[in-house]
Amino acid sequence: MANEVVLLNFQPSPYATRVRIALAEKGVEYERKEEDVFNIKSELLLKMNPIHQKVPVLIHNQKPICESLIIVEYIDEVWNHHSPLLPSDLYQKAHARFWANFIDQKIFPIGSKLWTSPSDEAKKAAKELVENFKTLEQELGEKPYFGGDNFSFIDLALIAFSSFFHSFETLGNFSMEAECPKIVEWANRCLERESVSQSLFDKFQTHEAVLGIKKMLGLDS
Amino acid sequence: MANEKVKLHGFWVSPFANRVKWALKLKGIEYEYMEEDVWNKSNLLIQLNPVYKKVPVLVHNGKVILESFLILEYIDETWNQNPLLLPQDPSQRALTRFWAKFAEEKIFEAAFNALCSHGDEQKKAVQLTMEAMEKIEGELKGKQQFFGGESIGYLDIILGWISYMLPVFEEVGSVQILDPVKFPATIAWSNRFLNHPVIKDTLPPKEKMLVYFQERRHIISCANLGWIKF
């Protein structure tokens, strides 16, 4: 059976980054189709993700899979010959999914308020964001990765947002090194992996885009 | 797997805790139930779920599993006898997870907003709920008995609150969402679900739910109007 893998991608999207990292970890060959998400969405995207009309979408042998963490789990299940992303132990698996969900709810949705909300709300968001990073730091503990000795699901879920750490710090007026040094150390360790360094969007270009959004929303202070 | 210690911490009206009860009963798993008062949280609950301090919490042989979606997957994988709640095929499984996430984010949250709001805000919440439900209605057309096929599956359990709790939201909020003209498949599914032997004996009493949600609507309305500061 032909193994046709297509990724509907937007390079700066942290959600698409997660999928790119997962595919790289598994050594999957795929075709990348770049979507112009702020302008015109392609017919293929509208067909493959009619509900949300968002990237990333993985199309495997013509079947679409949507939502970044659902896609990552799918990739792990289908290409299960090496580099497991989720633990095989069922309790550890539930634990990994729990923290990935926490990251989904408590990092980017809060952090993006720093450039999409007025100053009062943004200040509150900065405080909450720091608390959430500290919670994650506690979960990481002394382990090299969230998954233990190996890079896995939780690490993948979070590292995709590291392109935004610079923007979080600058707009939130805090230092991640000061507030959660272990997270910074962990991020640098992850960046040593080719799958990660090749997939992450540049942090300065990310910051430019973030400032552009802030300006467009009329939130320039 | 017999004689393994399974404990569920729940709250009588929590639709999330009810999901776990259904899954345990469907699989024939014996468990101990602990009622938690979520408005006066026990130290134990805070210890078990320090991040969110919420129910449901499943404790299996001392291991703590949180979040109803994740508990359902854990139950299905650990007790992998019939009925299987999730499909075996990875792409079908991904699709099931997709719909569950969609339903939780777009239907439940909007419906709860419809319960607690007034005027234009409520109209908008009702509209959003119905728009999302149209997608689910589309998914149900052509299905046999349930989303899971002949038997109740993961998606039926996740959406099960629609069958018994949404009518309560409608009554308390004085709105109509489950329009029989717009949602014939959903209503038919809902009736089948409610009549399932495992489901019908595990529902909270309707009168008690009405009182509870009337109070929630009142408290949340007062808070929104600035009368009560939490």
From TrEMBL, chain A:
Q: Which named protein is this?
A: glutathione transferase
Stored Pfam families: GST_C, GST_N
User: What residue stretches are annotated with the GST N-terminal domain?
Assistant: 3-83
Kindly give the InterPro entries that the UniProt entry links to this protein. Answer: Glutathione-S-Trfase_C-like, Glutathione-S-Trfase_C_sf, Glutathione_S-Trfase, Glutathione_S-Trfase_N, GST_C, GST_C_Tau, Omega/Tau-like, Thioredoxin-like_sf
Which reactions does this protein catalyse? RX + glutathione = an S-substituted glutathione + a halide anion + H(+)
* Lineage of producing organism: Eukaryota, Viridiplantae, Streptophyta, Embryophyta, Tracheophyta
Q: Which GO terms describe its biological process?
A: glutathione metabolic process; toxin catabolic process
GO annotations of cellular component type: cytosol
From TrEMBL, chain B:
Major subcellular location class = cytoplasm
UniProt cross-references to SUPFAM superfamilies, sorted A to Z? GST C-terminal domain-like, Thioredoxin-like
Provide the top EC class: transferase
User: Biological process GO terms, please?
Assistant: glutathione metabolic process; toxin catabolic process
| Catalytically driven reaction(s) | RX + glutathione = an S-substituted glutathione + a halide anion + H(+)
Database matches in PANTHER family: GLUTATHIONE S-TRANSFERASE, GST, SUPERFAMILY, GST DOMAIN CONTAINING (PTHR11260), GLUTATHIONE TRANSFERASE (PTHR11260:SF474)
- Per the UniProt entry, the Enzyme Commission number(s) are 2.5.1.18
Q: What is this protein called?
A: glutathione transferase
User: What organism does the record attribute this protein to?
Assistant: Corchorus olitorius
